[in-house]
Amino acid sequence: MSAHGPMPRSAWIFPALAVLLFAVATGLGLEFTPSAGGLLFAAVLLAILFGTVFAAVHHAEVIAERVGEPYGTLLLTLAVTIIEVALISTIMLGVKPVPALARDTVFAVVMIVCNGLVGLCIFIGGLRYREQDFQVSGANLYLSVLFVLATITLVLPNYTLTTPGPVYSAAQLGFVSVVTLVLYGVFLYTQTILHSDYFVGSGSDAAHGEAPLSNRMLALSVALLLVSLLAVVLLAKKFSLVVDVVTAMIGAPPAFAGVLVAVLVLLPESVAAIGAARKNYLQKSINLALGSSLATIGLTIPAVAVAAYVFDKPPLVLGLNTQEMVLLMLTFVISMLTFGTGRTNILFGLVHMVVFAVFLFMVFVP
């Protein structure tokens, strides 16, 4: 979907279909079961859910063009994070507890974004322009906050003494959630007010010669964005049933559910990031990619922790295993090298994509 020109029909059809599907499924008591009818329901659900997520991101892009950078990228990131929190919370708080889902999804988002998406954007940009530049100061701020958040939420739980295993005690989880929110909040203040110039690159994908967005279209996009987000939240319960049964049917490892949720919420934003890289606006790609990682950890972990406490669910399993920690540390190192010079080329992109391929392979063949 393009944020320019007339609103595409899919931008309002899919949110309407999502609300209609939820009403029909709830009224008739439709549930997903491993049968012909159940598989048809699952296919329809996934098609409408993906379309609604794309619609939500489209409307966020329309609004983002009006408010400008870096607020526009921030709006896109927050919209995707709301969808992600809804899906994780719904699956995790279902009848069958999944205390490790938040960890698996957050880790999958970091690996998909920092290796798969970043690598693909750099690789595509390198093929088309040989080299692309970006703001080193902005990238360093992203990475410094991301490294701290990822370490205290995904690595440190393995080495605490109050509780054994890869979990935090209630007091520790509460403290980590608070400092995570504070750090992310200060980052947003830095990004939008103190040093917004750090996050605006020299390239631009702005449209030239197009009529400015009217107030009527802006209001319509705001309303449809809210409807789209609400529709995804309403369908999250149905989606959780599909994830559970499909994972069992294909014999996938537990981490597969986290990867599936991450792919669903990141796909539209990934399309926008790749499109920006193709237009030689790598800075926007970096803002979208690294911003998604920060928002996922900075907002998802505290939100899921609160949900687990309120609904009296088992403690969240947050600590990664040794293999995953190695991949995370490797991602940190190559990210510092990639974003340390202010210029990229295809080799940087390929290195990130190889690490992502290793991560994906290890999910199924650990």
UniProtKB/TrEMBL annotation:
Highest taxon in the source lineage: Bacteria
Record keywords, A-Z: Membrane, Transmembrane, Transmembrane helix
One Gene Ontology term of the molecular function aspect: potassium:proton antiporter activity
Membrane-spanning segments: 39-59, 71-94, 106-127, 139-161, 167-189, 217-236, 256-276, 288-311, 317-339, 346-365
InterPro entries to which the protein is assigned, alphabetical: Alkaline_pH_Ca-Antiporter (IPR052946), NaCa_Exmemb (IPR004837), NCX_ion-bd_dom_sf (IPR044880)
Cellular component, GO, one term: plasma membrane
Keyword Calcium: no
Protein name: Ionic transporter y4hA
Originating organism: Bradyrhizobium lablabi
